[in-house]
């Protein structure tokens, strides 16, 4: 059995014969267990990739596997092990939450008794008889997650699950994702809210313009990358002095960003003092997922009207 | 079977479907009631009213005769003004007593099962056709409008099965509705005919049964075609627009290609499936090459579109739409 629950190689999606490319040779590997983040700016191809994995969109190139089985060819065989919410929740507005879930359960050959448990799990037990159209966005999102839990999935794919939720709702979803990951469910969660991802994910894939930019464990991606923020009265002259001293300098709007490598910060102070330059601020900046993300995606121009 | 059960439940839960089914049951009953009322036997009251009308009109005519006798030439009659000859001619032309009898004022024809089959029953079929087309489109149109189609495919990604289950559900409901509506209609007609002592040959009832069966088949095909078109176009409104365009297209077809083109219009073929045949005139049947309908052209320009031809026409259209729809649903991305 493959250790990868989700695997894509050279995945491609073009819209129209001369249209734009939403996914451009993407490689994606999601290991079994834990929570895996799928990051990318708006229009980078996250949702299109997820839709292709789930058979809602056809790829125009490359290969995909779920649980080691090629999809979409073998999708019907593996779909029973996958729960997914793609974009905003979509149910029949005039049916109650319970009726919507019961129809889905019956269609999937799932015991209808699981509906009550799934509704209870997402905290909708008291409102299960209300029509779906009367639900708030948060309740709709929770109902969508309840629908995925009907199957008792081994893989849960959540596309922007906290979109439109208030802080309490975001926290609830985050805790639910963390709990599911801890129970052994592999959760693939796409988002552009990086703080959220960093809090719940064990590993991430970062994409931009439909291509994989980085992939790995979160702690590995953010490790060893401490930079220093330097504020000085003559930044251009100071940058020249530091570069002569072999320090990598990045020029920002109101400060210089220094990558010291193995050097100590005292060397910066010493080099500047030697040229009568005195720093007003020299502070360490620890890398987080956001800085990694911005660093990786800053060279990627936004896709005009690109797919989400 | 599991998916079919789910789709039947989904259909049953839609309020619009329930309203359409109700309309499909009530309107045929109203048409039957109207047909039975319009063919009701003549009562003593009706006869008295007719005699009264006939007498009043006869008196009016006699007054006209008096005017005619004074100036026969202005009425187109010969004879000298005021002469017996003029009176005789004017009376014969304007006030023949035989015209003003009660029987000529009782227009209602008696209930006739064969006429009902080719007249009122066709009207019932047309109403049911509209109902099932709306049923077929709104059912899946709602899935596309709400976006729930994608959620359904996340549960069962076998698209052809999903397509077929939804089509079968619509077809089963259409068949049930048509059967009940036609049974109600014909039961009302049969009971009333019996109560009025109208004898109907068994061959006529045989034709009623055959027509009813073909009506049910046509309605199921229409439901599946409406479903297929909506699955192809993904919108109830666009589908209904296409159906409307087909109706308008029939008129355009006639305008461009002449009266002969009526054979190729969908409404004509639908009526032929229900009634068994449709007679129509062609306008290119003259050896001198002239076109246009000529009065008293006779049978030379009369053609008959019979049921087998119409069934073939409808079947080809339905199969084409279904094939296109399934192929499209299997291949296209689902929003």
TrEMBL record, chain A:
Keywords: ATP-binding, Nucleotide-binding, Transport. It comes from Nocardioides zeae. GO terms for molecular function: ATP binding; ATP hydrolysis activity. InterPro entries: AAA+_ATPase, ABC_transporter-like_ATP-bd, ABC_transporter-like_CS, P-loop_NTPase. Residues 6-234 form the ABC transporter domain. It comes from the Bacteria. Belongs to the ABC transporter superfamily. It holds the Pfam family ABC_tran. This is ABC transporter ATP-binding protein.
Automatic annotation (TrEMBL), chain B:
GO terms for cellular component: plasma membrane. It comes from the Bacteria. The keyword rRNA-binding does not apply. Pfam families: ABC2_membrane_2. GO terms for molecular function: ABC-type transporter activity. It comes from Nocardioides zeae. The chain crosses the membrane at residues 120-142, 163-188, 208-230, 237-262, 310-329. Signal peptide: none annotated. The keyword tRNA-binding does not apply. Keywords: Membrane, Transmembrane, Transmembrane helix. This is ABC transporter permease subunit.
């Amino acid at each position: 059995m493959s250790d990868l629950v989700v695997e894509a190689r050279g995945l491609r999606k073009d819209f129209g014969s001369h249209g734009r490319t939403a996914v451009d040779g993407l490689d994606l590997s999601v290991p079994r267990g834990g929570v895996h983040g799928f990051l990318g700016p708006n229009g980078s191809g996250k949702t299109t990739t997820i839709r292709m994995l789930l058979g809602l969109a056809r790829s125009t190139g490359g290969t995909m596997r779920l649980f080691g089985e090629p999809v979409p060819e073998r999708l019907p065989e593996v779909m029973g092990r996958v729960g997914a919410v793609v974009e905003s929740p979509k149910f029949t507005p005039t049916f109650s939450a319970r009726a919507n879930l019961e129809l889905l359960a019956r269609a999937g050959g799932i015991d209808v008794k699981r509906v009550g448990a799934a509704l209870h799990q997402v905290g909708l037990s008291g409102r299960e008889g209300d029509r779906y159209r009367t639900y708030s966005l948060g309740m709709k999102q929770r109902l969508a997650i309840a629908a995925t839990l009907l199957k008792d999935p081994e893989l849960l794919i959540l596309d922007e699950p906290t979109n439109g939720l208030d802080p309490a709702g975001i926290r609830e979803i985050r805790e639910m994702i963390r709990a599911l990951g801890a129970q052994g469910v592999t959760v693939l969660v796409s988002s552009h809210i990086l703080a959220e991802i960093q809090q719940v994910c064990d590993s991430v894939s970062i994409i931009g313009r439909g291509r994989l930019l980085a992939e790995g464990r979160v702690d590995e991606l953010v490790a060893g990358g401490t930079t220093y923020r330097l504020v000085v009265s003559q930044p251009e002259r100071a940058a020249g002095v530091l570069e002569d001293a072999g320090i990598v300098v990045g020029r920002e709007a109101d400060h210089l960003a220094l990558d010291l490598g193995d050097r100590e910060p005292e060397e910066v102070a010493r080099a500047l003092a030697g040229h009568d330059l005195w720093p007003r601020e020299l502070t360490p900046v620890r890398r987080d997922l956001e800085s990694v993300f911005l660093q990786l995606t800053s060279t990627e121009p936004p896709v005009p009207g690109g797919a989400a | 079977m599991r998916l079919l059960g789910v789709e039947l439940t989904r259909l049953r839960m839609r309020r619009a479907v329930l309203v359409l089914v109700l309309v499909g049951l009530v309107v045929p009953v109203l048409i039957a009631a109207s047909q039975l009322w319009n063919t009701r036997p003549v009562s003593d009251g009706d006869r008295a009213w007719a005699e009264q009308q006939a007498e009043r009109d006869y008196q009016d005519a006699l007054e006209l005769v008096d005017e005619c006798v004074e100036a026969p030439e202005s009425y187109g009659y010969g004879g000298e003004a005021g002469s017996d000859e003029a009176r005789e001619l004017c009376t014969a032309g304007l006030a023949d007593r035989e015209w003003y009898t009660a029987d000529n004022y009782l227009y209602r024809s008696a209930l006739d099962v064969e006429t009902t089959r080719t007249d009122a029953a066709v009207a019932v079929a047309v109403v049911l056709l509209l109902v099932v087309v709306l049923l077929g489109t709104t059912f899946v149109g709602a899935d596309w409008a709400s976006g729930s189609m994608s959620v359904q495919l996340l549960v069962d990604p076998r698209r052809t099965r999903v397509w077929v289950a939804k089509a079968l559900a619509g077809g089963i409901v259409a068949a049930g509705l048509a059967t009940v509506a036609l049974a109600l209609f014909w039961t009302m007609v049969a009971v009333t005919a019996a109560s009025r002592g109208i004898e109907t040959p068994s061959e006529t009832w045989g034709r009623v049964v055959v027509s009813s069966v073909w009506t049910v088949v046509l309605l199921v095909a229409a439901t599946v075609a409406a479903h297929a078109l909506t699955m192809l176009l993904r919108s109830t409104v666009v589908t209904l627009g296409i159906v409307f365009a087909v109706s308008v297209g029939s008129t355009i077809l006639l305008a461009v290609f002449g009266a002969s083109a009526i054979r190729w219009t969908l409404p004509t073929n639908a009526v032929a499936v229900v009634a068994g045949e449709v007679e129509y005139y062609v306008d290119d049947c003259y050896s001198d090459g002239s076109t246009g309908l000529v009065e008293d052209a006779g049978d030379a320009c009369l053609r008959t579109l019979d049921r087998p031809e119409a069934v073939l026409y409808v079947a080809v259209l339905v199969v084409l739409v279904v094939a296109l729809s399934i192929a499209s649903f299997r291949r296209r991305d689902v929003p």
